[in-house]
Amino acid sequence: MNPYKPYREYVKAHLSDERYRHTKNVVEQAGALARRHGADEDVCLRAAWLHDCMKEESLDTLLHWCREFAIINNALARSSRALLHGPAAAAFAREHFGITDARVLDAIFYHTTGRPNMSAEEEIVFLADMTGPERTFAGVEQLRQLCFTDLNRAMAWALQNNLIYLAQRGRPIFEGSVTAYNHYIEGE
Fold it and tell me: What CATH number belongs to 5-136?
């Protein structure tokens, strides 16, 4: 039996067609990056299948799952579906699917914000989420190539791109993403 079938069936039943296609693209890219960089492919694939499983849920639902997993003290995180869906998805993966591997849960949890000292599996899921074929932002082709040659440089580039995108639109920036960016540029 395909070990990922329950995840695939869940996201297919609970996500929009567009979000499901995105998830399949992330799975494909995460698998390719894991093989290229010698990361644990199973960890990457499980996290990729479930990374957005809470993406289309209400803020109340996300907050419920976040309370089950971790205390979210930051007011921005508490009010942002974009920031909460990763931690909520990690909590859901643990409770609904019985996933206890911290590597899988962390890759899901941090796939939108990043953090300093991410594992290769966390970096791969973060980058796979940003580089699927449906992504069309300026420089995405360069980032796709960089992902296959240097995960740390790809993370620095991706985090910088995210921060610029948010700043140019006058949107608040989660301090954890700034900390992650500083970590990755100091490592270059």
Answer: 1.10.3210.10
State the Cα torsion 79-67-18-150 to the nearest 10°: 90
DSSP string, 132-154: STT---TTHHHHHHHHHH-HHHH
At 76-102, the pLDDT tens digits run 566 688 888 999 999 999 999 999 999
CA torsion angle 92 95 96 99 (round to 10): 90
- Tokens read off for 47: 């996290």
Q: For position 80, what pLDDT does the model report?
A: 80
Q: Is 125 exposed, middle or buried (0-12, 13-18, 19+ CB in 10 A)?
A: buried
Contact between 154 and 146 under an 8 Å Cβ cutoff? The reply is yes
Q: What tokens were used for 139? A: 């420089």
- Dist. CA 12–CA 23, nearest whole Å: 9
> How many CB atoms are located within 10 Å of the residue 18 CB?
10
What is the C-alpha separation between 60 and 95, in angstroms, rounded?
Answer: 17
| C-beta of residue 61 within 8 angstroms of C-beta of residue 92 | no
The token pair at 53 is: 């499983």
Percentage of the chain surpassing pLDDT 90?
79
Q: Which amino acid is at 18?
A: E
Instruction: Dig out the tokens for 109 from the structure.
Output: 């949890």
